[in-house]
Amino acid sequence: MLVSSPSFTSSSALTCSVIIILILLHTSECLNKPTNTTITTTLRGHRQLSVDYYAKSCPQLDQLIASVTANRFQEAPISGPATIRLFFHDCFVEGCDASILISTTPGSTELAEKEAQVNKDLAVEAFDSVRQAKALVESKCPGIVSCADILAIAARDFVHLAGGPYYPVKKGRWDGKISMATRVKSNIPSANSTVDELLNLFNSKGLTLEDLVVLSGAHTIGFSHCEHFVSRLYGFKGSKKPDPDIDARLLKALRMSCPQTGGNADIVAPFDVTTPFLFDHAYYGNLEASMGLLATDQALLLDPRTKPFVQALAKDKKKFFQAFSAAMDKMGSIGVKRGRRHGEKRKDCSMHL
């Protein structure tokens, strides 16, 4: 699932994991219906947004953010998948309102979203990318552009920088005033969620079964820590055997990096074991070859409701790019805040006004 597991934070761990897995794989043959309330909220947010929202107030906005994301992608490539994941985590909790960027107020007993357990390992590179972009935008267009819009644009930029589509981002979001860690867990899928659980969650956001499969394709880049898939390698679903739906070569490679107990907690593995640094449609072909990393990834091929979409996208990169662009636009409209009654325009994305 798109953001159920973390991106890497250790470049050495990343290098070791990717090298081991790719070498071992290539030594052989290479290979529910949405609620009316949710739909209304999503569609209303969609109508409120527009591509040219800042055409007069900050006409150079996209170029300003692009200068930062291009530099970040070169200096710290993990900024790409990390920021895309950050955008997902933001939109699924309280809507796309940059509430994920808020820091807990010193002395407060109410922790902010980013302090929730499931968000603890959101990569610092993502937060840094948004912070740097916001600083540059504020220097040119002070008090005009929301952190929520900057995050949405940055996520798009990183998709494109990694080889994916460049799609227009609708703007006009305000930053949210609510950020509570207690609201996170029930709104973010886990690495072992069932397809039914995923569908129920996506439907609750006004997203469809197809959106679930398409947005999961963001796992064409990015990495996950062992703890999120180790149960597939040794004692799957309470058995003493590995998940039968995992390729034998991938199983061997992952076991070398991720022991059943102990091991380095910083070790990660790529979601896409064939082209881990390229935003393409190989993720879906990997699922057909039983090389999905997470249980939620592989489940998309195993479930008869999602399987046809996986198979179609595995065959057609252009179709995936078009569908992904549309799904990101749709997700970016979830729970949009507008006006001072419901939102704010933060100067520092980590602090309320």
UniProtKB/TrEMBL annotation:
Question: Which sites bind substrate?
Answer: P189
Protein EC: 1.11.1.7
Q: Which GO terms describe its biological process?
A: hydrogen peroxide catabolic process; response to oxidative stress
Q: Where in the cell is it found?
A: Secreted
Q: Which residues form the Plant heme peroxidase family profile domain?
A: 48-353
Q: Which cofactor does it need?
A: Ca(2+); heme b
Decide whether keyword Signal is in the record.
yes
The UniProt record gives the binding positions of Ca(2+) 1 as D90, V93, G95, D97, S99, E113
Recorded superkingdom = Eukaryota
A single cellular component GO annotation = extracellular region
Provide the leader sequence positions.
Answer: 1-30
Cofactor binding description? Binds 2 calcium ions per subunit. Binds 1 heme b (iron(II)-protoporphyrin IX) group per subunit.
Active-site positions on this chain: H89
**UniProt function note:** Removal of H(2)O(2), oxidation of toxic reductants, biosynthesis and degradation of lignin, suberization, auxin catabolism, response to environmental stresses such as wounding, pathogen attack and oxidative stress. These functions might be dependent on each isozyme/isoform in each plant tissue.
Q: Which PANTHER family match?
A: PEROXIDASE, PTHR31517
Q: What is this protein called?
A: Peroxidase
